[in-house]
Design brief:
- By secondary structure, this protein is α/β, with parallel strands linked by helices.
- It is 50% helix and 19% strand.
- The chain has a 6-stranded parallel beta sheet. Strands 2-3 form a two-stranded antiparallel sheet.
- Helix 2 packs parallel to helix 4.
- The longest helix has 21 residues.
């Protein structure tokens, strides 16, 4: 179809005694203990390696989406890390999509804008994740070099029953399309939700 298909890398941490631990539990601990940058680098490296394998196997349009932490965005070396990772594997920038949450993007919108423009310069796609759950300024949002807006699952779960969720989703989709952004609705679990969103 000529469209890029995005595959999102879902991180889980495995504890020997407790099994898989979801990101909502281990990421805050990793941030507190200063390990998040090392974990983020490992995830980025693994994701780029995997998408390189998929593309070499004939899936040339696949893109992998990786979440960025606030700590990664503070470091000046992050853009170089991304550039070097792409180059090492012979990947174009469009093989990677980096996701940043709305609340993280708005902590320091000027710094965020500079960093995101540098990443866009590499050809990397950029997405605002969990849109609608933070407190973003639309004035800043329009200045960010984004390619995608990801509508938070909390608005999608009851979209076919709750008129407020439906109204918020419709407004977010219209806003994104007006800004020329792709939209991804997270948490779609049934045909009714999918058809409602398509409509």
């Amino acid at each position: 179809s000529g469209r890029v298909v995005a595959v999102e890398a879902l991180a889980r941490w495995e504890h020997p005694g407790r099994g898989l631990i979801p990101p909502l539990k281990f990421i805050p601990v990793a941030e507190e203990t200063g390990q998040i940058e090392a974990i983020g680098s490992w995830v980025l490296n693994q994701a780029l390696g995997q998408v390189a394998q998929w593309r070499a196997s004939g899936f040339g349009e696949l893109r992998v989406a990786v979440n960025m932490s606030a700590h990664q965005m503070r470091g000046d070396a992050f853009v170089n890390e991304v550039a070097n990772g792409l180059q090492r594997r012979g990947l174009p920038g469009d093989a990677l999509e980096l996701e940043i949450t709305e609340s993280v993007a708005m902590r320091d919108p000027v710094r965020t804008g500079v960093l995101l423009r540098q990443l866009r310069g590499l050809g990397v796609a950029l997405a605002i994740d969990d849109f609608g759950t933070g407190y973003s300024s639309l004035a800043y949002l329009k200045q960010l070099p984004l390619s995608c807006l990801k509508l938070d699952r909390s608005f999608v779960m009851d979209i076919e029953h709750d008129p407020n969720d439906a109204a918020i989703s419709a407004a977010a989709i219209q806003l994104a399309h007006s800004l020329g952004l792709a939209v991804v609705a997270e948490g779609v679990e049934n045909t009714a939700q999918m058809e409602y969103l398509r409509g």
